[in-house]
Specification:
6-stranded mixed beta sheet; 34% helix; P-loop_NTPase; Rossmann fold; 3-stranded antiparallel beta sheet; ATP hydrolysis activity
Length: 259
């Protein structure tokens, strides 16, 4: 699947949250959305997922509008993990993950062997097998995020949109999740992920999109996007850059007081 945003703008009251954004995301790549708080990352992801109506511009899926494609088909082809995703009832983890297969099931139809296999793969991939019988409301924040990611993965969609999937995770599971997303892209799906950790963004993403003030400040290869000038302008920081085992890293190091 190819998702393309053209001239995308979003307004809430008198505030423009997105300003004339033009971007495209395709199969087999992992793209990181980065930027300071309030830059428009979550707003952009919601528009890409078809969950918000733009004030101006369009979002298309393989050249089709959401109206032409239909929400049922989009639900099978695109999976979305929200930043504040949660379940409002005491559901078991395995039951939650099985909800990811609903777009593939006919009304009133039971689970197929393919559904059960997809759920098993998602639980294993996210290190949630031992949590399968636990209620979601008994989990830690990090465990809950992994379970919700498993639900998204169970869709086995062509495109995965994930909003800060590593924010609540310990270092081991941060790396595990980024490796998992990298593997999803390597198998041919597209991945768009919102990140605040610049080192994880530099190491794992094929390209980055830096948002600031609702606009695209920079887009391209991680090393180019994470330049000193871009980081100073967007984040008001100075960073340390380096390379380890063939991968780049960027460490926020010093604040720069805005002029």
């Amino acid at each position: 699947m190819r998702i393309e945003a053209t001239g995308l703008s979003c307004r809430v009251g008198d505030t423009l949250l997105l300003r004339d954004v033009g971007l495209a995301f395709g199969a087999g790549e992992m793209v990181g959305l980065i930027g300071p708080n309030g830059a428009g990352k979550t707003t952009l992801l919601r528009h890409l997922a078809g969950l918000a109506v733009p004030a101006a511009g369009t979002v298309t899926y393989d050249g089709q509008s959401l109206r032409a494609l239909g929400r049922a088909k989009l639900a099978r082809r695109l999976a979305y993990l929200a930043q504040d995703a949660e379940a409002q009832w005491p559901i078991r983890v395995d039951q939650l993950v099985r909800l990811g297969r609903l777009p593939h099931r006919r009304p009133l139809a039971g689970e197929s062997a393919a559904d059960l296999a997809a759920v098993a793969r998602a639980l294993a991939a996210t290190d949630c097998e031992r949590l399968a019988g636990r209620r979601l409301d008994t989990l830690s924040g990090g465990e809950r995020m992994r379970a919700l990611l498993a639900r998204a993965l169970a869709v086995e969609a062509e495109m995965l949109l994930a909003d800060e999937p590593v924010a609540a995770l310990d270092p081991y599971h941060q790396l595990h999740t980024m490796e998992l997303l990298r593997d999803v892209a390597a198998r041919g799906a597209g991945v768009v992920v919102v990140l605040h950790d610049l080192t994880l963004a530099a190491r794992f993403c094929d390209r980055l999109v830096l948002l600031s003030g609702g606009r695209v400040m920079a887009a391209g290869a991680p090393r180019a996007v994470l330049s000193d000038d871009n980081l100073a302008a967007a984040y008001h920081i100075r960073a340390l850059h380096g390379e380890a085992e063939g991968a780049d890293f960027t460490l926020p190091w010093q604040r720069i007081d805005p002029a």
